[in-house]
Amino acid sequence: MFGIGMPELIIIFIIILIIFGAGKLPEIGAGIGKGIRNFKKATSEADNQEKLEDNNDT
Predict the structure, then answer these.
(1) What angle do CA 15, 21, 24 make, to 5 degrees?
(2) Considering only CA atoms, which of 33, 27, 31, 28 is closest in space to residue 12?
(3) What is the pLDDT of residue 54?
(4) pLDDT of residue 36
(5) What is the DSSP string of 22-54?
(6) Which residues of the chain have pLDDT under 70?
(7) Phi and psi for 44 in degrees, rounded to 5?
(8) Whose CA is closest to 32, among 6, 13, 47?
C-alpha cells in the first residue's frame, strides 16, 4: 500500500488527531466512507453499463 507501514500510519493518525481534534474524527470518517461507497457504486455502474453495451453489440 504505497510503501506505508504501520508506524507511518500511526504518525499520520496522530497528526490528523491533533489538527482536527477527537470530536471531528467520526464526521471525517463518515465522509470518507460515503465518498468511497459512492466511488465504488459509480465504477460498478459504469462497468455494468459497459458490459450491457458489449452484449448488445454482439
Answers:
(1) 115
(2) 28
(3) 75
(4) 93
(5) TTTHHHHHHHHHHHHHHHHHHHHHHHHHHHHHH
(6) 1-2, 57-58
(7) -70, -35
(8) 13
